[in-house]
Each structure stands twice: as C-alpha cells, then as structure tokens.
Design goal:
- The protein has 791 residues and is mainly α.
- 55% of the residues lie in helices and 0% in strands.
- The protein is built from 39 helices and no strands.
- Helix 10 packs parallel to helix 13 and helix 29 runs parallel beside helix 32.
- The termini are far apart.
- 35% of the residues are buried.
Amino acid sequence: MDVGGNGGGLPVNNKQRAMLPNKSRGEFTRNPRKDSEGLSESPDLEFEYSDTDKWAAELSELYSYTEGPEFALNRKCFEEEFRPHVSDKKWTELDAAQHRAHAMRLLDSLEVIAREKRLKVARAILYMAQGTFAECSSEAEVQHWMRYNIFLLLDVGTFSALVELLNMEIDNSAACSSAVRKPAISLADSTDLRVLLNIMYLMVETIQQDDPADKPEWKIIRETFRAELGSPLFNNEPISVMLFGMVTKFCSGHAPHFPMKKVLLLLWKSILFTLGGFEQLQSIKVHKRDELGLPPLPEDSIRVIRSMRAASPPASASDLIEQQQKRARREHKALIKQDNLDAFNEKDPYKADDSREDEDDNDDNDNSIEAETFPLERDEVMPPPIPHPPSERVSFPKGLPWAPKVREKDIENFLESSRSKFIGYTLGSDTDTVVGLPRPIHESIKTLKQGEEEVEMCSTELLYQGILPSLPQYMIALLKILLAAAPTSKAKTDSINILADVLPEEMPTTVLQSMKLGVDVNRHKEIIVKAISAILLLLLKHFKLNHIYQFEYMAQHLVFANCIPLILKFFNQNIMSYITAKNSISVLDFPYCVVHELPELTAESLEAGDNNQFCWRNLFSCINLLRILNKLTKWKHSRTMMLVVFKSAPILKRALKVKQAMMQLYVLKLLKVQTKYLGRQWRKSNMKTMSAIYQKVRHRLNDDWAYGNDLDARPWDFQAEECALRANIERFNSRRYDKSHSNPDFLPVDNCLQSVLGQRVDLPEDFQMNYDLWLEREVFSKPISWEELLQ
C-alpha cells in the first residue's frame, strides 16, 4: 500500500487504507503542470542555495501536522511542574537565577524510574526548548526565548541526560518487540522517542545558528558543545554514530517504531554543526592549500554559480512542431536586409551579453538552451536590439565562468603524445620535464609530489573512525529510506514503513482531514529526502577533503548499493511538478501556529496551498542529489557507463526545464561526461544542450568531451578499475585503522635466524602423529648438498 502517494510501498492495515483519500493513495499534489506547459515563459527561480533553509522553516519541518495537539500538552506539563514553585509570575518575568534553579529541578526530575513521570518532565523541558510560547505574542519573541532557554538547558547539562535517555529507549526491547508485532504503527508508538529527539534537535539547530548578538559566554558554550558533539564523549562515540545505529536498526525491521524523519534531521544537523557547512569546507580547503604551499584557489564554486544565469530549457516536441509551423508561415516574407546579416555575423555567440536584447525575438529565443544566440542553430536573423533603460540591465562577467583545470593523467597523456610526435620517443611516466607547459600543470605536479601528511584528529577523522566498521550498512540503510520516500517508488510488500511518526492513531473520517493527512504524508517524505541528500553530500565532501580514500570508500559503497540508478529513478518524474509542489500548510507551521489564532481550514485553502514560486526543500534536494551523482561518477569511466546504460540522458535533459542556474549546471556536468558515448546523432540533435555545456561547464586540458575519440571508453577495463580501487581502499583502511595488524602484508619482518628458530611453533595433532612419515619423505629421502648449505 502506497500511503500519501509517493513512497516505496508503505504497509498499513485495511482500516487505515479505507480511510485514506484517493488523492493520498496516489501522489497528493496540487495544481499539476504538464511537462511542456509554460516552459518557455517560466521565470527564473529566485533560489539561493545554502546549507539550510531559513531558521523558522527548519524548525517547522521537525513537526508533522499530526503532532499539532501535543504543543498544548507540552505547555500543560510545564505548568504542572512550574506552578508549585512559582505561583505568581510568568517564566518570562523571572530573573536568571530563578530560571537556572527551575532548569536544575527539571533535570533532577528526569532521574526517576517511573516512565510516565519521566515523559511528563521531558515534555516540560520540550516546552522550554520551544520558547515557552504561551507567554509570547510574536514569532520573533518565541525564537528569542527559544535561544535563551536552550543555552540555559545546555549549560545545566541537559543534553548529556537526554543522550542517556535516548540510549535507554533505543535498547528498550519491550517497545521494539511490541512494535514489530503491531499490524499498523502510529504516532503513539514513538511518543517517548519523539519528545527526546525534538528537544535534542531544537538544541542542535538553535545553537548552531551563529548570532552576532550572542553573549561571550554563549559563544564559549557553543564552541564547547560543537567539540563535544563531534568527539566520542557520549557512549564512547560521536552522537552521529549513535544516530546511524538507529537508522540501521530501523531498516533491519527490529525497531519499526523509530521516528525516522526526526532521527535523520538530527543526524544531518549534528554532522553540519560538527563538521561545518559549505563555507567552512571552503575555508578548510584554503587553509590546507596554504599549508602545502600551493597557490590560492582561483574561485569559490558556490559564488561563481550564484552569479550565473539560468538557461531556457531545450525545446519539447510540441514546441518544435509549433516552431516549424511558424517558420512555414514566414517563408513568403521578403529577403533579409544585408545590414541585418552583417550585424548578425559580427555577434560573438560565446559572449555573455544581456539576454534582454533578444526578448522580442520570441519565435526563436523561447526554446534556446541559453539566452544568447547561436548562429549555426538559427534559421533566421535576429532583429536589431531594442534599447532598455539602464536600471533594467544587469552586468554579467564576459566569457566563460570557470578557470580550466588539469589532472595527472592529462599531463602524462599530453607529454607522451607531444614527445612521440615531435621528438620521436617517450619517457614513460616522467612528468618532471615540463618545459613550456602552462602554470596549472606545474601546480598539479607540485601537488602530486607532496608526501602523505600526519593524521590530524579533527571531527571528520573521528566520525570516519566511528562509522568505518559499519559504513556499508549505513549507506544501504540511508538509500533504502530514500527509495521509500522517493515520489517515483512503487508499492512493494517488503518496503519499510517510513510513516511511523506521521500517521495518527485514529485515521481521518472526513474529506478535510484526509486532505490534511495527504499533505502531511507528502511533506514528511519530502523532508526525509532533503535530510538524506544533505547527509550524503556533506559526508562525501568532508571525507574527500580529509583523505581521498575515505571519500572513495563511501562512494564505492554507495555505488554498490545502487545509488546511481536510484537517483536517476528519482529524477524520472515530472520534476517541475516536484519542485513546485505545495505540500505545506503555512498556518500550521511552528512557531506561527502557537502564537496566532488559527483560521478555519477548508478544502479550498488546502488545495490552493501557499503562494511560493517553488518549494525550497525540494529544489535543495534535487541539487544535492545531482551533486552526489556528479561526485560518484567523476573520472570513473565504469560509473559514467552506468549513466549511459541506464539511459540517463533523456531524464537529465528533462531536468533542464527547471530554470535555476545551479541545478542546470550539475545536470549539464552529468551530460558532458557521457556525450562521447551517446553517438554522433545524439550530439547533432542536441546542439543547444552542447552549446550550454560549452558555456557553463569548466573545461579541462585535452578533454575532447564533444567527440567520440576517448581511448578510455574500453568496456573490458571497467571491472578492473573498480577492483583496483577497492584493493587500494582496503590497504588504506587496514594500514591506518586496523589496530590488530591482522594483515600479514603490514607486519614487520624478522630477519634474525636465532630469533626465528627460537620461536615456539604449535604443531597440529595430526602432524605430530605422522611425524615419522614426514621426516622420511621431506628429510631422509632427499639428498642434501651440505657444501652449498654451509656456504
């Protein structure tokens, strides 16, 4: 049974099935759009890629709409704990000493045996972490008190107590066995876990927000918490390793009641906080290059992408037919004036001029892959440009946006071919003789000659050591959940149920309740995709920067777990519908819902959704998945061929319909690596896409991506390539992390004859019984040349 539309076979009982609306059995989307509808006229998406969405959005996504009634329950539990000690004042009216005293009382009350009492106190702490919202009049005030209360809770030691309680709940075999036996799991089965995870998530998410107005002591607390979170202080492992353990336990079927969305969100924010986001990655990269004496980076990729413009999508079949009809109607027109021809021929097709100059030429410009014009691809001449007011024009850098790059194999191939051609002989793998080569090659050679550095025990290294023993299982578990949450997944009986923390105990009885649950289920799946895509991308980027073999180990296990076809399957849908989906009810989002009177929901208001041009989390997820696919396939010919075999080109080309520069760039990168394998006819039929690749994607030395002349396209080398990489990774992990030194290749060799002969060797029992026969066969019956032996 596929609940809420787009998950991978989520089992529910017949009662739940009957009560779900038809729309939620299929994908619950509003205002669906056809693939070709309005593509040419669709505006650029004003999306700014970042580590996370706005803080309020990240807070609201923690809660499903089904959890709404629990806000009042948390407040009630807090009041019952608070009023016996302070009867005449509100929380917001107390001084710092009184706040601290009550926080300590709540922390002490957590140390009780009775589960009901513990849950009540945990709810009171959760209400504090939610900003004691009943005493606030605005969302900004709620967020202010959230920050104050959370730093207070952290300072008195609440987080450590929560980790201990979470460990108890993870090991609660009674709850696990009860959940396994249940035919349908609902929100009620995960109450204790949800309360604990809510508090922990709010603490991590709030503290990682760097506010310049924070007090100095808060900044110290923040940095201490970051270090503790990434070190093995909790249960002798980083908190992320414990959460990975919850993910695998859930996927194995032993704990189906785990609220997986909250676990994944906390895992993502823990990794983001301890390892750092994209800005920190860039600063670490700059620092490491400086340490190695390398020149500074020519550009920051994210900043370059932000300055790029989106391209118009390739023409769909209906657009091409319409275009041909228009051209047929124009055939009777007079010949083109010569001065127009001259103006046309003088235009440089690769200059990034303002696209507004061609706005009136709608017949041709609508379906061009790029706002600029291309002489070889147009059948008519552009009209003279229409001037625009200066205020409307935006200045863009001329020429190509990226500095070209080079790699070792390119250097070797270039040198070998040049020496063979001009000198008549080769020098093998000699890359020292580099007279006349450009500066990037000198830098690459300098990089390659650097020795291996000492292992620095940073947060990334600690995390890798923690997840190394079970990393393959973690990757499989994440991809299983991603598959279940993907919109394109079909119902399967053996799929995991990812809706444990969204389905209510009592299923809806009215159309309005059913519509609300349908929105909630789809939103729930979108948030899971967002969290998993961010986790995988962050880990890949940090491991690659820490040590290339850490990255390769994770990447190879993602490939073995079918990550490449899974991502392609995800994109094999109407991607514009996914990105413009309106699966949210803004009046029910936290903290809006706790400080405003809620209007009456109607079927019409749910159907209409919000007024946003796109869904931030879905566009974020799509870009992350494309970046992951790029990282897995880059410079790996066997994996590039997987893109070809799985027919990814038409899927990726459809994704170009999303007019957002960053997403289009990563789609074009994936198309670029496989163009040489797609054949001349494909390249000829997709010249606009090829032109966009030329303009937007970085160029590399000797990279004939637009032609089919690559010697590396030999299919028999693919398996050997993966096997050689795997052997290198295993040697790296064994040398660096295998404390037992069980691999004989890395044991020291004893060359002393006396010590070798003096070692005690335990002989097997059957050898001792047949010792006489062994002596006869191996010693007495063989002639011995004593002269040679003594020499």
